[in-house]
Automatic annotation (TrEMBL), chain B:
Segments crossing the lipid bilayer: 20-41, 53-73, 79-97, 133-160, 180-205
Protein name, per record: ABC transporter permease
Localization in the cell: Cell membrane; Membrane
Membrane topology: Multi-pass membrane protein
Keyword check for Transport: yes
Superkingdom assignment: Bacteria
Family membership noted in the UniProt record: Belongs to the binding-protein-dependent transport system permease family.
Keyword entries, A-Z: Membrane, Transmembrane, Transmembrane helix, Transport
Domain ABC transmembrane type-1: residue ranges: 19-198
């Protein structure tokens, strides 16, 4: 757990980067710090590993005041992923990942073996280890950055806009990977971004900062989207925050019924019972079956695209379990929204 | 102007020892130049106010005429190899210091920041991150300093040293061009070979800069 208690940061030029911040970042959870540039989110992150020293107040990591610890040793115990990876251009990928283990005094062989293991963890091919950073794509470099931060298995991971410099497709992949990794590793992660969608996807809790270093609201994403504390938060989350909320809810609780028989459109299945397409007398249209884990937003989208307004639902093996109607999805989406608002209030 | 080839044949031993002595003077100067420049450059790089002063000082030293420097050193170190090396070292400073400072400046802030954030202490960052990344610019300085020193050694003939430069005085005094031509050719050859070796050394030392296999 990371605790900020009445933390202030004033820079020598007189600007206040962080104003009276008290905040708890729970163990094993992802806390996302968001806000426009100059709101103090990066300064807040960097005070945790003493890249920036607070002017007053205390910051504790797992109960220990950071300013009472040797800065270099503290930093080795906290993983750090920087914007555009910040890899060492003169070291191979393997040696980049092995940085902290080597600083901790591991022998080279053990450090490299650990680094090779991490290459696989972050989804890179083993032969990438012998390359130099400039020989990798931006997305691959970012994966190396994550592997380097994880090398000594630190309990806390700080991520400063780590996916800011890659294209949207790669960005989504990296976010998925991070969520997958986090399920296995259960790190206490502090993640800085200015992208609300990224915050909603990744955060267990989202802390919204306003210029001048004021924390405006800190809550789980669904609560935040359903009940923004003030106009600033509402504006920041954007006009589509209702849809963003739906991206957090799953299809699991929406009722389903049997697929229609004998109407204009029939759902054609293969012999195994997997949906193939929608068919009428003279046309065929594609079907995108959804599982219980898919979001209400995806369901709403599919119900609009479907010629019947029905969404085909399948189990993990892809076999049809039933269909849900546009109305059922719509009603459920409305209920999910008001439920979240009640929690927030 | 004709070359007396038999003179060359008769003096191969002398030519070899003069060439080696010439090379040794130049290399020793570059070595000490680096030894002095590295710490000074680190200071100039870290302490901004000292930067202008140190670079300015190395410029001023460079403007002292080479003969004058040897003469000024005579009361200190006499007619010795030491005088030659001190004089040459002073001249190497202007390029070595400037290039080392510029090399350190060229290390991306992001990379230094990453080293710090991983828990690397300043000295280790300097040795394992900053200096290796500054190496290409430092090596460019070493190449210039080496070629410059090789050409300057001859001036030390005035104090009885001077390696291949001794061939020039010999030739002038006897109005005999062969030693002069041989001296010039050997000096150029020495500079070219030394430069090529330094390029090869840099290639070995900076594997990350090689093109993709």
């Amino acid at each position: 757990m990371i605790q900020f208690d009445a933390v202030h940061k004033r820079f020598p030029n007189g600007t206040t980067a962080v104003h009276d911040l008290s905040l708890e970042m729970p163990e094993g959870g992802v806390t996302v710090l968001v806000g426009s540039s100059g709101c103090g989110k990066t300064t807040t992150l960097r005070m945790i590993n003493r890249m920036v020293e607070p002017t007053s107040g205390t910051i504790k990591v797992n109960g220990r005041d950071v300013t009472q610890q040797d800065a270099a040793e503290l930093r080795r115990s906290i993983g750090y992923v920087i914007q555009q990876a910040g890899l060492f251009p003169h070291r191979t990928v393997l040696d980049n990942i092995a940085t902290v283990p080597l600083l901790l005094g591991w022998n080279r062989k053990k450090a490299r073996a650990r680094a090779a293991e991490l290459l696989e963890t972050v989804g890179l091919a083993a032969d990438a280890g012998k390359r130099y950073p400039h020989q990798l794509s931006g997305g691959q470099q970012q994966r190396v950055g994550v592997a380097r931060a994880l090398a000594a298995d630190p309990p806390v991971l700080l991520m400063d806009e780590p996916f800011g410099a890659v294209d949207p497709v790669v960005r989504t992949q990296l976010q998925d990977e991070l969520l997958r990794l986090q399920k296995e590793l259960n790190k206490t992660i502090v993640f800085v971004t200015h992208d609300v969608d990224e915050a909603v996807r990744l955060g267990d809790r989202i802390a919204i900062f306003r210029t001048g270093g004021h924390l405006v609201q800190c809550a789980p994403p669904a609560e935040l989207l359903a009940g923004p504390a003030d106009d600033f938060v509402a504006d920041f989350l954007g006009a589509e925050r209702g849809l963003k909320l739906l991206s957090l809810q799953t299809l699991a609780d929406v009722p389903q019924g049997p697929a229609p028989q004998g109407g204009t459109w029939t759902l054609v299945l293969d012999p195994a019972g997997k949906p193939l397409h929608w068919a009428s007398k003279d046309a065929e249209l594609p079907v995108r079956p959804l599982t219980d884990g898919d979001s209400l937003l995806a369901a709403l989208n599919e119900s609009i695209a479907s010629p019947t307004g029905l969404v085909a639902r399948v189990d993990a093996a892809g076999v049809l379990t039933g269909v849900s109607s546009r109305d059922d999805i719509h009603v459920h989406a409305g209920q999910a929204h008001s439920a979240a608002r009640v929690v927030a209030a | 102007m004709t070359i007396d080839w038999s003179w060359i044949g008769d003096h191969t031993d002398d030519l070899t020892s003069l060439t080696l002595s010439h090379l040794q003077a130049a290399m020793t100067a570059v070595f000490f130049g680096l030894l002095i420049s590295l710490p000074l450059a680190v200071v100039a790089h870290r302490v901004r106010p000292l930067r202008g002063f140190l670079l300015g000082l190395s410029n001023v030293l460079f403007t002292i005429p080479s003969i004058a420097i040897f003469v000024l050193l005579l009361p200190v170190s006499g007619l010795t190899r030491t005088t030659t090396v001190i004089g040459l070292t002073v001249y190497t400073l202007v390029v070595l210091l400037r290039n080392t400072v510029e090399g350190l400046d060229s290390v991306p802030a992001k990379t230094k920041e990453a080293a710090k954030a991983m828990g690397t202490r300043p000295l280790r960052t300097l040795l394992t991150v900053e200096l290796p990344l500054a190496l290409p610019v430092i090596m460019a300085g070493v190449r210039i300093a080496t070629v410059m020193s090789i050409s300057l050694v001859s001036v030390a003939t005035y104090i009885g040293d001077g390696g291949l430069g001794q061939l020039f005085t010999d030739g002038f005094q006897r109005d005999f061009p062969t030693p002069v031509i041989v001296g010039v050719v050997l000096t150029i050859l020495l500079a070219v070979v030394a430069d090529a070796l330094l390029v090869a050394l840099q290639y070995v030392l900076t594997p990350w800069r090689r093109r993709r296999a």
